Amino acid sequence: MTTKLTGAVVVVSDRIVSGERGDQAGPIARELLSAAGVDVREVIVVPEGIDAVAARLRAALVDGVRVIVTVGGTGVGPRNQTPEATAPLLSIQLTGVATQILLEGLESSAQAGLSRGLVGLTGREAGASLIVNAPGSQGGVRDTLGVLCPLLPHIFERLGRD
């Protein structure tokens, strides 16, 4: 890729927003994306739930961010609605990549099967963005981005971006 991709990390956690817990996974996501050549513009924390997550995703898209990674909110709890906030923004889902992430996660933890994270593109044109839902754990972020980062050049080349 000749031009650096822009990125954003959206950490989804009521406990981090309230100050009950510190953000451990967001900085890992930023570090791994940066190492893959993505210019991460921000790491922002939002509360769980469809509205807050969808609003932050839409804002990143309006800002022209090309790689958006959410961290958290993918489980089975009542406020774990990150996939529901993401789905309406995706034109195509990359189910094969999501399966690769699941298989990688299952190597480390049986709980990886509880994550409902989506991976997809907002379109098929050169300006489309990639949205990836990673689990909120440090290991889940490492597994997700360990699969995703090597694929980024291929994904964006196929969209007509060199």
From TrEMBL:
UniProt keyword list: Molybdenum cofactor biosynthesis
Highest taxon of source: Bacteria
SUPFAM superfamilies assigned: Molybdenum cofactor biosynthesis proteins (SSF53218)
GO BP annotation list: Mo-molybdopterin cofactor biosynthetic process
This protein's pathway: Cofactor biosynthesis; molybdopterin biosynthesis
Domain MoaB/Mog: 8-155
InterPro entries the record matches: MoaB/Mog-like_dom_sf (IPR036425), MoaB/Mog_dom (IPR001453), MPT_Adenylyltrnsfr/MoaC-Rel (IPR051920)
Designated name of the protein: Molybdopterin biosynthesis protein CB
Taxon lineage: Bacteria, Bacillati, Actinomycetota, Actinomycetes, Mycobacteriales
